[in-house]
Amino acid sequence: MSTSNEAISTELEVRRVVEAARDALTDEMVARLTEAVGEGLSLLDQVNRSGLEKALPSIARMVRDGDLERLVQLARVYGSAEDALSDEMIGRLAETMAEGLSLMDRLSRGGVLRLVAMMERMQASGALERIAVTLPKLMERLEHVEHVLGSLEAAVAEAERLAGGVALAEQLTDPATGRMTPIKLVTDNGGAFKGHAFAAFIASRPELLHIRTRRKSPARTASGNARSDR
């Protein structure tokens, strides 16, 4: 008898809970709950049709091995980088990539492949190594020539300054005869004084007369002579 009474009491309590829940649910809440249940059923149907159950073993292995966690971290890093990129940065990046592609296209059309092939032949024949050895020496000689020419220019400018701005050529010209007596610039036979650059400079300055000493002669033959150690 007591068991029957307990069952009746439990049934009454369940009814009260159901009625209380029914009274608490508004029409809007019922509509939302129905919509959520419908979306859930639709999602389950899509999962069944897509064959997602076939991918579950692979996903389980990824979870077990930690690969899924690494993918999540990679996605977070990518998302952070995407958020950090402003519109201006994206524009610059796109512009840089476009310029790089354009440069590659121009190089390809300009025969860069032939240049690479030629350099490969030079490397095979040893010519590239010889150029690498000779080039520093050539640059050193050019720097020496530049230094010599700069010193001569400075000397001419100083002579004109001391003469009150009168050109050196005018200072060396006889007003009566109009003849100019050039300054003799005596140098040794160093490479700096035998190159085209030095010859062109002397040709452009008629007030200077370049005289080289004979071979195996003393490096200095008079006061003020120019000397090259090369």
Can you walk through the features of this model?
The chain is mainly alpha-helical. It has 3 domains: 2-82, no CATH class; 85-125; 138-212, no CATH class. 70% of the residues lie in helices and 4% in strands. It contains 9 helices and 2 strands, in the order H-H-H-H-H-H-H-H-E-H-E. It has a two-stranded parallel ribbon with strand order 1-2. The termini are far apart. The model is unreliable at 220-225 (pLDDT under 50).
Write the layout of secondary structure elements.
Layout: H1 2-24, H2 27-50, H3 56-65, H4 67-84, H5 87-109, H6 112-125, H7 127-162, H8 168-171, E1 183-187, H9 196-204, E2 208-212
Parallel strand pairs: 1-2
Number of strands: 2
Net shape: rod-shaped
H-E order: HHHHHHHHEHE
Strand order of the largest sheet: 1-2
Helix content estimate: over 70%
Number of domains: 3
Radius of gyration over C-alpha positions, nearest whole angstrom: 47 Å
Short overview:
This protein is mostly helical and 230 residues long.
List the defining traits of the structure above:
230 residues; mainly alpha; two-stranded parallel sheet; 2 strands; 4% strand
